Amino acid sequence: MSVIVQKFGGTSVATPEKILAAARKAIRAQKEGHQVVMVVSAMGHSTDELIELAEQVTDRPPAREMDMLLSTGEQVSVALMAMAIDSLGAKAVSLTGAQIGIKTDATHTKARIRSISTQRMRAALDEGNIVIAAGFQGIDEDFNITTLGRGGSDTTAVALAAVLEAEACEIYTDVDGVYTTDPRVLPEARKVSQISYDEMLELASLGAGVMHNRSIEFGKKYDVPILVRNSQSDAPGTMIAAESESPDQAVCGAALFKDEARVSLLGVPDVPGTSLGIFSRIAERNITVDMIVQNVGEGGKADISFTVPKNELAQTLEAVQSAVELFGVGQVTHDAGVAKVSVVGLGMARQTGVAQRMFRALADASVNIQMITTSEIKISALVEREAATRALRAVHQAFELDRSPAQRQAATRLGGSPRATDAADVVARLQGIDMEELCIHEISLDESQARVTISGVPDQPGIAAKVFDEVAAAGVFVDMIVQSYTGHGHASLTFTVPQDQLPSAHEVAARVARSLACQGVTSSPKVAKLSVSGVGLRSHTGVAIRMFRSLADAGINVDLINTSEVRVNVVVDGGKGQAALAKLNEAFHDVLR
Ligand code: ASP
Ligand code: MG
Questions:
Q1: N or C: which end of the chain has fewer CB within 10 A?
Q2: Which has more confidence, 435 or 193?
Q3: Ligand 1: which atom is nearest the Cα of residue 45?
């Protein structure tokens, strides 16, 4: 019989009435012929209240005891839910994480799931019960109660769906589904009917806080279709699956992260190990670095800029200062008043002119772009915070995200189709490893590209739009784009193109550079792009650091970097591609699967 997992979040079980309403949904699914597992969160804000209670007793609660405390929230809701189902005449049994056998590591308050036993759940289901599982909790080897991090019930739900090979995992929440952007910021945002795991991972990390990110990683890893629905209505919701809503659309959503801060290291040595020196110091302080851009070095010096959440700026500056002292040269600047606007879409990799369209929209709205990074499925631009909402609206409009894909203008599409995952293959590959372990699927080398860099670009609106308008008009296909801040009101703009298109790309760049009073254009006829892709790159920080370390050890200098939720790309000298590939394979051999 097919299994369905239904997860009800805190707001969906906040009152006795809502608990009864949720119980009815589960009973209905059972009557429709499914075996039903419910995963429930703590009622309303009770987790917050428990945390406050702890804070009133001590300002340093031991993490183990915090988990002991927080897990009680979910224990209350599972019991009440079982009573509700019983009162409505169906059979139910509530189970804690420990009773199910959700084994985690021992990292209290943010434990990772290692394995889940299905025996007890299966037995209860086969006896006709609705199984009600406490979300967010598990036990470690020594039977200590652990919790999975705030919002972790989503992860419990998708993980249970994975091990039970459920038909779907339904997430009942207080919104109708996933939107093209946050509807509280742009009322014209549209609910999407379907979105791919990769797109959702990007959007979630960009601040579209619909679901716990680790739950999406689970969904992707084990190929679990996730349906996000409103618990108060019968609206169809949004399906998160391998494919996106429409394979033809370049962009599925746009996101804004308002509280960003930029840090730039100007004039640091352009030698192997520089990035490692900087980012390992930041990682030691558990700070998540977001956009990383590095311009192509000149005269032995390079500029590296990156962003961090505004509230981690002070700590970051400390870390960076210690790196600069070690290098002996370099200047640090920062700006705490920036925001990041991004567009995400699986179809982007197969269309031309997507970046151009975004930059044009920003230029027409008189928004200055301070930094740019791109990945296969994401383009991010850093803008001043004051312009943030205007920038988001301009971009949302430019991609017609308020309309359904069928109503949008047709885009120029290149060949190719999204890769299909083989679920059985994936599951087979993952046998015998901890469920939330980092998985690197692929390390690849692309030696087909060349690089063009425009330096001394005046930092004013419209430049990127102009460059990529002209590049697109010349029929050149652009892959990576990196705009870096170089100080004194200037930026440097680098992009990669197919080697055979370098002459025309260089010519266009030179023409635009002259007309916009930029300093000059350099290019490299051959660069090597290395990509490390997989699942868990976000929750397992340190993938970029591992790359930097192994390349630095081999004396290979990194020219460009870009990162996304599913991939880290670096560009190195064209002659070093094979050596770099060998090094990376060595560095990641233990997690390649
Ligand atoms: N109750 C936990 C929290 O509030 C887990 C969850 O709701 O997903 O974070
Ligand atoms: Mg929650």
A1: N
A2: 193
A3: 4
